[in-house]
Amino acid sequence: MSAGGRPAAQPGVRVHGATHVGSVREANEDAMIVDPAHGLYAVFDGMGGAMAGDVASQKARDVVKEYVRARRSQMEPRAMIDAALNAASAAVHAEALSRRDRRGMGTTAVVALVLDPRRMLVGHVGDSRAYLLREGRLTQLTRDHTVVAELLAQNAISPEEAEVHAYRSVLSRNLGARPETRVDIAEIALQRGDRVLLCSDGLYGFTSTEAIQQLLGSTDAPEQVAKDLIEAALRGGGGDNVTVVVIEAGVATVPRTTQLVRTTGSISWWARRERFFEAARAAGLATNPICAVLSPGEAVEIVAGNFVEALFHDLEKATTVNVWTYAENLAHGWLDRGGGWAPLRLLLDILHHSCTQVVADVRRDDAELALIVEAAVTRELTVCEMAVGGVLGERLRAIEAELVKLYGERQAASEARRVDTGKPFLDQPTMPFLRKEATSEAASPEVRPVLDAALRAAMQRERDPAVHDLLTRLHGLACEAAPTAAVTVAARDLFGVRALEERAIAPLFDALDRARRALIGAIHSSQGGAATPVQVAALRQLALAAHRLAASISGLVVEAAQPGSDKLREAVKQTSALRGQVGKNEARLAELERKFATVYDPMAGKLVDPGSSWGGSR
Amino acid sequence: MATPADHAATLESLRPVALARLVEIRGSLDHALARVTEAEAREHFDAVLRHTQAYVATWDWRLHRSFLQSYIALRAGDGMSSDDVIHVLVAVGDVVIDLVRNQLGGKPIVHELVVALAKVNAHTVRGVIDLVAEELERRRAQRDQLLRGGAP
Lengths: 618, 152
Fold this sequence. Notes:
The complex is a heterodimer of chains A (618) and B (152). Chain A has 618 residues and is an alpha+beta fold. Chain A has helices spanning 52-71, 77-98, 147-153, 159-164, 201-204, 209-216, 222-235, 257-271, 273-282, 296-315, 323-336, 341-365, 367-416, 447-461, 465-479, 484-495, 502-526, 533-561, 563-582, 586-599; strands at residues 2-4, 13-20, 30-35, 40-47, 106-116, 119-125, 129-134, 137-140, 184-189, 195-199, 242-249.
């Protein structure tokens, strides 16, 4: 990825541009201008193949840049943009005529000229877009110059027809097709905090509007936003070159909340760590059963010290150990040793209480900063609890799966003894907790024919191709010992990468329900009367497969909708890798862990031999 | 310094906007709500927002825990795990926090309200994981009983 951006010469405006070749194309045919000195920003998306596309976009970029630089102070801005883009069109057209291999080349253009922090002109030709984000809401400032968009504007076709129209990517205007072109120009009145995004279709073609809105609306600096947008497009498939320019107007003269937390807030937290230790000691950290075999000093050094450091890193947005990892390790370490919930709850509450004391101290010096730090620290405590919640949820799902198995065995034994309990099989006793982490087993040789027959019957009954697809996949997952990855792949195929819209998600879940019901119905009707043990087993296989598939699809929806959660996972992953490098305290920790593990087992309540590890070594 | 009642009143004034936003992005927040009508989703989020206001006004922990208990049970019927419930409720809180920052930017109450909402999120997660921990204990007992051959 290449990037362009430097401190804006215009006060109150921050800008950053970035471009990436994408995951499929070999060459980058996009070009951009990031020229804060002249308030000029633009994105060009070249076309023409055989290297002509990048020639067109670069030619147009150079012409527009030179034109504006030479006339910025002499011409009326609107006329200047119009003339600059026409000059670019003429130059690209002339270049196309000059060589056979460049015939037909052209480029789109979207240009923003920031007149002052409150006014901007946006001119465009083609389907590169400008968006405005104001108060969290995203508005498209440009209308694509495509054949289909023009037909749609004339009400010649419906929005539904437009979506599948064969010419939906064909441009009705571009730079280079003719020496002159018609440019659409609009003046935008900017407000403090507005963000404007210029982008090529490699962004909006592979990223949902909602994701763009979320990323553009984050409190991160334009550099980070541009990087995140490019990453979102790559995650969405990266099927085209992608270029973005993020312009932030009306930047506040006082630092933003996040900046304050990263700087003053984190420093303030770190400076008061002794206060945290003191509060933790007073609240009984050292006597908590989790720390029982450590000396008071060691308990503070390890348990409180690591938390303080992790929270400091989170506040300043560093990528070292964070509170999520800290809490996860703590919970795993303790629960893996058979420790109970109460000491863990107590320890989390001690950490919470100690944070409150630190915030109270900050408040004495600076009430306003204290509010900001308190919000950030509370958020961190929430993250901490969420991590522990994940560990508990994981254990709950495991025990639910165990219970399903035990119930199943008991029911099978009961059926074998021909004892009719009179209770029908229910496919949802504990299903909410199985999710995709559950492991599946292949259908037994007795169950397989029942599932096969059910598939045949359901296929005859259902006509919808979408339901047919799901019937086949459900049947496959129910029959085979599908690993989680296979379920995720199936869900990904069904979900697609560009369909994050209500109208795509809801029908998918409806089709899944219909497929599941059709198979269940077919199994039930395969033999009249009470269900046989084989039918029960087939229903169980099917319910598990349906639930895993639904969970995977949900996961993908969340993943696509919340790039933030991807970032979090990525951060956790990076943290995990970096943990190995932390090193300097490792020898000390290992020694203490050994001491901890060899001296006392809280469950046995006695001295024991070396056992499992504890704390930050997972 | 604003009172809890002021916070609740400010949240009440933001509720229509918050509702519209939550309904708009419900597909990303909650797969089960993506499948219901807009009116049903609105009703659902409205209940959550009204409870949040009540909690911000009273900080009645028992009320909050009771709400969480009912909510988890209700959502289990939609196939939502405890993790899902945590994420949905925290996401709803985050959306409201964003709205407070965006809609009330510059007003003195903003920081206080953001802190209050952050606390609601923290209390919510704490409440849910306490309930999950209790459920885990019950399930363990159930399993042990099954393994011993007794009735669950």
